[in-house]
User: Which sequence fits this backbone?
């Protein structure tokens, strides 16, 4: 049976996000001038607004995204924040599944024998 670790999954997602971020950088003149059509793309909008410090939970509805961008456009854009927010959103379901598996396979985290870890290598980051 093949398992994917959290590190492997995050690396996989990060590789796809790098490509998306480079594309977004080109389309937005280096994150300085997003065209109107970019605000209809949820992930692109989350990256752009995340790069200005907006938390994912507070991303404005589609019709308010450009205004939210303009309100913080004087703030330096953070590539790290832009990608990190989207990365966490992408890997959260994987983390949830990993925790559920570990919980189930270790008898609610009660089993601490080597055999439990051998059966559930997916539980290792």
Assistant:
């Amino acid at each position: 049976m093949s398992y994917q670790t959290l590190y492997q999954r995050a690396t996989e997602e990060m590789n796809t996000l790098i490509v998306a971020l480079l594309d977004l950088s080109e389309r937005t003149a280096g994150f300085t001038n997003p065209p109107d059509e970019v605000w209809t793309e949820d992930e692109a909008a989350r990256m752009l607004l995340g790069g200005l410090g907006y938390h994912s939970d507070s991303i404005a509805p589609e019709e308010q995204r450009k205004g939210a961008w303009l309100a913080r456009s004087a703030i330096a854009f953070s590539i790290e924040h832009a990608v990190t927010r989207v990365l966490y959103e992408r890997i959260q379901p994987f983390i949830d599944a990993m925790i559920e598996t570990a919980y189930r396979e270790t008898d609610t985290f009660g089993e601490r024998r080597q055999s439990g870890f051998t059966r559930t290598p997916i539980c290792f980051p």
DSSP finds five helices and no strands in the chain. The helical segments are 6-27, 42-50, 65-71, 79-105, 114-119. The two ends are 17 Å apart (CA to CA).
